[in-house]
Amino acid sequence: MADKDGILKSINAALKSKKLYPPGHPAIAAPAKKSHEMIAEALKAAPHIMIGLVNDALIFENHPVADADRLYPELINYMSEKGVDAIIFEKGLGDKEFANLVDILTSAASYRGPELQMEMHQKGITHITLKSMPIGKKSIIVVYNGAVETIKNVMHEVRLGKIPKSEPVKKVIEELTETVLTDQNAIIGLTMIKNYDNYLYNHSVNVSIIALSLGKALNLESGELHAVGIGSLLHDIGKTGVAENIIRKPGGLSSEEWEKIKEHPLLGSNIIKRMEGLDETVGRLIYEHHIRYDHSGYPQTTAKLHPLTQIITISDAYDALTTLRVYQQPHNPVEAVKVMNNFSGRHFNPDILGTFISMIGAYPVGTMVRLTTNEVGVVTRINKDAQDRPTLKLLYNADGSGLPSPIEVDLAQTDEKSIVSTVNPATTGTDLAAFFEQEAAMQEGACQTP
Ligand SMILES: [Fe+2]
Ligand SMILES: [Fe+2]
User: What separation in Å is there between the alpha carbon of 146 and the centre of ligand 2?
Assistant: First the structure.
């Protein structure tokens, strides 16, 4: 039986002394040496020893460690700081390897999670494995739903008269940015979720996904991209100050009600000013999101627009056009792009709209299409070099019967089929939101298999 307390205590001491003393100081070597000896002793009876961190709780060989926060704070801090979920020591562990592990865990370098294993290899550490959840692989559906929950909470707090915290909003934007950078097609697919009851929340998240994608296509530097992300997630936060019955009113608004709606950009930017730690650009983007390129729209102003505002205006328009509203059938993505293109140079900055159109594709992710073979499918990935030949998942056979499970076809790889037209999902009874949720869930399953 491994001396659990002895091992954890000496590892904690080694990490702590590393923090307190300069390199080469004898106070560092002693606890590291002791840790190595104790672990090596324990490894005589077991092929490996595992120390884990699960939801901030320390685990030793599958058992939670009591009072770990008080007893082993350095170990917990360094593991969570470096994104390490488990440290596994294997038989044959050398003392040099252990000393190197202490160096890596305490280093000021910004390597985290899976990147650390690379560093371990470079330092010749072969008997220690650092396990981490791949950073980019937190399932996208979890990221999406988390974002919806966060904006819902933020707006709820505002309605209660509280000033919401910025931290959860920033965290959501970091996660969405990472997902957009690593898996843009899949997350854009999820913007097909247009939950009618939750409209404002899903809309906010969808707009931020589209805006981050557009920001990426425009090669924004990270600070600007972050401001665009926060601004787009919170762009309609001022609607919390407009009565619910006006926001949800089916049919036409009276001019008085319309005046109320028009207050939301100003109300929103005022809320942002009171939230701690948000860049003032964010408030400005929110204030300007309904001012069009030609300065029509609202609030009325002749002042020059912030160069990033149009990113939100364009993303907002695209999500609104593709959503079923009481007063509007949803446009399919191809139609939505056409409608927007008609307003190029008036509502929208032609350059940014041009980048948006090439980013979203001739057949954007989420478009339902009929092929020359009469099969029907949904676009799941655009091919940058062949805009009219995206990758699809086929859902219906040529005779209109449903396929038992979707079949992927990359039109860029075949000459046998091409797109002849778009199809209204309502005519086939297809729930695209459910389709993309399913796709994301399957992808999640694939990530979990070893
Ligand atoms: Fe708005
Ligand atoms: Fe909006």
Answer: 19
Concatenated DSSP letters for 75-139? HHHHHHHTT-SEEEEETT--HHHHHHHHHHHH--S---THHHHHHHHHTT--SEEEE---GGGS-
Top-level class of domain 140-360: mainly alpha
Tokens 């787009």, residue located? 232
Name the pTM for this structure: 0.70
Which ligand has the nearest atom to the CA of 285? Answer: 1
The number of the ligand nearest the C-alpha atom of 291 reads: 1
173-182, 322-331, 431-440: least confidently modelled range: 322-331
Alpha helix positions (H), 297-403: 309-321, 333-342, 350-360
According to DSSP, the residues that pair with 87 across neighbouring strands are 51, 130
Measure the CA angle with vertex 264, ends 258 and 266; round to 5°: 125
Q: What is the DSSP string of 403-429?
A: EEEEEEEEGGG-SS--EEEE--HHHHT
207: CA distance to ligand 2 center in Å?
Answer: 7
What average pLDDT score do residues 228-235 get? 98
Q: 397 Cβ partners below 8 Å, 6+ apart?
A: 375, 403
Instruction: Determine the 3-state secondary structure of 64 from DSSP.
Output: strand
Between 222 and 197, where is the model more confident?
A: 222
- According to the model, what pLDDT value does residue 55 have? 73
Map out the domains of the chain as residue ranges: 4-133, 140-360, 368-448
**Nearest ligand by distance to the CA of 317:** 2
